[in-house]
């Protein structure tokens, strides 16, 4: 066979291969699209599940009563529907958690990204991520049986109840450290080495380079990690239920027992509220409010990531 014929046959074979349908690629595309749609469908399903009972709740309880009172007790008689005690408790415990998690998480991320040797990083980062897999009920009992007695011994001037927001907030903070540390370290690792080398060439130390060059360059990812951690802390249930308690009292003192929004949902959803009653519908109203709060934080996170994202060639 001549070279011309071989070339023609080879071209025909390539054309036939290109025109032949690739069923494997089609199947992979469908599977990936289905996986993406699952998260969207789940979110839509949550919204529809919350919507109808929430509308029915606000058909009986006005927004003024819901947001205009500081007395919360929908499971008591007479019932009270002022939601501010559980909102304040949620924000208070979340704030304590962020005060714990952000400095420790960022310090850990800077160490792993800028100071740790590859061998240390290979050992330390998986250990850190294992912390994220510890059941939250373990954190809750640890806070109740160890942290609260320890705080009473070390700081005897603190008036801590057996269950209190301070211990719960501290352990929620420990729980979300891996979120801040891991995601922030990933963002810092993505910063081009050219920026570091330019800083070193100007005489900057490693610490100055880390704080003034790497962290600002990875700022969008760090902000996303922190807001994701805030959302996780706000929705935490078991730690705050075990260590924080279920007392729905409007208080700003973290040493008092307090119930967060998630803790109330866990309490009321355990069977204390008969299905169809206004107390039962309160679960969905509080769930909708918590969903809106976390959705708003995630939206702010996405906008800030877009605003401060650094693009490198």
From TrEMBL:
Domain ABC transmembrane type-1: 87-301
Any one GO biological process: phosphate ion transport
GO cellular component assignments: plasma membrane
Localization annotation: Cell membrane; Membrane
Tagged with keyword Phosphoprotein: no
Highest taxon above the source species: Bacteria
SUPFAM superfamilies in the cross-refs: MetI-like
Residues spanning the membrane: 26-51, 82-106, 127-148, 168-191, 211-230, 278-300
Pfam families the UniProt entry points to: BPD_transp_1
Main location: membrane
Matching Gene3D superfamilies: MetI-like
InterPro entries attached to this UniProt entry: MetI-like, MetI-like_sf, Phosphate_PstC
UniProt keywords, alphabetically: Cell membrane, Membrane, Phosphate transport, Transmembrane, Transmembrane helix, Transport
Key word 4Fe-4S present: no
Membrane topology: Multi-pass membrane protein
One Gene Ontology MF term: phosphate transmembrane transporter activity
PANTHER family linked to this entry: PHOSPHATE TRANSPORT SYSTEM PERMEASE, PHOSPHATE TRANSPORT SYSTEM PERMEASE PROTEIN
Function: Part of the binding-protein-dependent transport system for phosphate; probably responsible for the translocation of the substrate across the membrane.
Family note: Belongs to the binding-protein-dependent transport system permease family. CysTW subfamily.
Name of the protein in its database record: Phosphate transport system permease protein
Species name: Planobispora longispora
Organismal lineage: Bacteria, Bacillati, Actinomycetota, Actinomycetes, Streptosporangiales
């Amino acid at each position: 066979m001549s070279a011309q014929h071989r070339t023609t046959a080879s071209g025909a074979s390539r054309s036939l291969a290109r025109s032949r349908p690739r069923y494997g690629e089609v199947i992979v595309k469908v599977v990936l699209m289905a996986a993406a749609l699952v998260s969207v469908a789940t979110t839509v399903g949550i919204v529809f599940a919350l919507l109808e009972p929430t509308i029915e709740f606000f058909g009986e309880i006005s927004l003024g009563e819901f947001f205009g009172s500081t007395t919360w007790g929908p499971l008591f008689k007479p019932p009270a529907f002022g939601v501010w005690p559980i909102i304040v408790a949620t924000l208070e415990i979340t704030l304590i958690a962020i005060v714990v998690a952000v400095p420790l998480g960022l310090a850990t991320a800077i160490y792993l990204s800028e100071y740790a040797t590859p061998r240390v990083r290979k050992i330390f980062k998986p250990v850190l991520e294992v912390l994220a897999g510890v059941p939250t009920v373990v954190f809750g009992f640890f806070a109740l049986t160890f942290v609260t007695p320890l705080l009473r011994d070390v700081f005897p001037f603190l008036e801590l109840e057996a269950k209190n927001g301070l211990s719960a907030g501290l352990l929620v903070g420990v729980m979300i450290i891996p979120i801040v540390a891991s995601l922030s370290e990933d963002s810092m690792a993505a910063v081009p080495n050219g920026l570091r080398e330019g800083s070193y060439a100007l005489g900057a130390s490693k610490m100055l380079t880390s704080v003034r060059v790497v962290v600002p360059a990875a700022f969008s990812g760090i902000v996303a990690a922190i807001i994701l951690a805030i959302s996780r802390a706000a929705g935490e249930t078991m730690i705050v239920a075990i260590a924080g308690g279920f007392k729905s009292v409007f208080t700003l003192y973290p040493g008092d027992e307090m119930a967060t929004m998630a803790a109330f949902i866990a309490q009321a959803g355990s069977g204390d509220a008969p299905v169809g009653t206004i107390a039962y519908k309160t679960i969905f109203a509080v769930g909708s409010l918590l969903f809106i709060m976390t959705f708003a934080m995630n939206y702010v996170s996405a906008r800030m990531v877009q605003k401060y994202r650094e693009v490198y060639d």
